[in-house]
Design brief:
Blueprint lengths: L17 H8 L3 H9 L7 E7 L4 E11 L5 E12 L2 E9 L3 H5 L5 H9 L8 E8 L6 H14 L1
Antiparallel strand pairs: 1-2, 2-3, 3-4, 4-5
């Protein structure tokens, strides 16, 4: 884990365009575009916003859909942040769904991360954090995104 000194995109006046992200992420920009564009973005829309509580720009990966009755719904599937030379994808799961998440077909290292992740907050969630530096994306991220979409909306 990095300390927050290495978190980038802290200027609320500088929107994270592709040019800004390429400059910020350096060699991992290719990995970012591979993630953003992978299997149609996992059916996820990514929206950047400056958050004053975090004092930085963060992207939410949103699954949007319309219910049979026509109501528009959306669910945050992941959070993305830019760091010094890499980006971080964080997927939060509800504690009550931990056993279901553990059944996801992921590697042993990710299964260990799931088992050891600490529950936090009033909403009783646990984070799964991936620091990504290369375009060779961990297959586990896609599996966990699909799991999140399936069990939490």
């Amino acid at each position: 884990m990095d300390n927050y000194e290495n978190l980038r995109l802290r200027d609320p006046e500088v929107t994270p365009t592709d040019e800004v992200l390429e400059q910020t992420l350096g060699g991992s920009y290719t990995a970012y575009t591979a993630f953003r564009d992978s299997p149609a973005g996992f059916g996820i829309e990514q929206e950047w916003k400056y958050y004053t509580d975090g004092k930085a720009w963060f992207a939410k990966g949103l699954r949007k859909w319309t219910t049979p009755r026509g109501a528009k719904k959306e669910k945050t599937v992941y959070w993305l942040s830019a760091w010094d030379g890499y980006f971080r994808v964080t997927i939060y799961f509800k504690e009550k769904n931990r056993q279901e998440v553990q059944k996801t077909e992921v590697g042993d290292k990710t299964k260990q991360i799931i088992a050891e992740a600490k529950t936090m907050g009033k909403l009783m969630t646990f984070p799964l954090i991936f620091d990504i530096r290369t375009a060779d994306l961990p297959a586990d991220i896609g599996a966990l995104i699909e799991c999140k979409k399936r069990i939490e909306g």
